[in-house]
Structures are given as structure tokens and as C-alpha cells.
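User: Before I run my own analysis I want an independent prediction to cross-check against. Here's the chain; please return only the C-alpha cells and, at the end, one sentence I can use as a sanity check.
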Amino acid sequence: MFERETKYTDQDIIHGIRMSDNKVLSFVYAEYINMAISIFNKYFKNDNDFDVLFQDTIIVFCEKVTQTSFIRTSKLSTYFYSIYRNKCLEILKRNNKNKTIELTELMGIPDEITETTEMDIWLSKYGIQGIWACLEQIGERRKNIIIDYYYKNLSMIEIAEKE
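Assistant: C-alpha cells:
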């Protein structure tokens, strides 16, 4: 694949993508492709869709990073991972409409956004009124994200595009 000659910081990557620096884009490609292959091979039998899925993730990642509203709240690798994971989920859901797909299965590690068990426990303990009371105490943006994800069943990609 690609040789990783230079190590870029997240800030360097953001700046490079915004400046359309092909070296930075090549670095991102080389840095994240093994992770993407690993996830893809774990959940898909054929590799016909890998190139399209990975390229689409690169495009979405770059588009999001170049937006002036982009705020980095995690490592870029984590952000890329979440975009890729959501794209995999979209394909799995499309291919397995009658099967339930747990988001945590794709990650292999717990993720506070994808764990519904805590939400279920909290709901049974405090009821819907308790949830609404908490939602009233957080910012409007966070409240809308939670409502879109848990009640409207929108994917994180759909929510991000909506923002």
C-alpha cells in the first residue's frame, strides 16, 4: 500500500486536508486502511464493496473536516472510525433488514453512544419523566442529538448531516 514516511498530528491532518495537501491525504489513507480492512473482513464475506466503502468514508471524513463548523472532540482516528463504522452499519442494515445489529458488535469495544443497556436501566429506574427532566437540563443541540438517535432512530451520519 502506502509508505508512511511522516507522522502527522491531528492538527496537521486537519490543516493539510483543508489545504488539499495530497501527502496528508495519502497519510490518512495509509494510517486508517488497516483498521478499515480489519473491520470489513470481520463483518463482510466478499470484498467487492470495500473500495467503495473506504473511499466514501475518506470523502465524508474530508468533507466534514473542511467544514468551518467542524469541532474536534476526539482523536481524528476515532472520528474516522465512527464514520466508517456507521457506513458499515448502513450496509449491514440494508443487507439484513430482518436481523437486529448491535452497534457494539462492529466496534469490538464499548461505546457510550451505542450502549443501550444503561439507557434501559435508567429508563426502568426513573421512567420517561426522569429522562425528559434530564433532557431539559442539557443544551438544545445535545438534546436534539439524543432525541434523533434514540427516539427517531436516525443514524449518527444522518444526525451529522442534519446539523
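Sanity check: The chain has eight helices and no strands.
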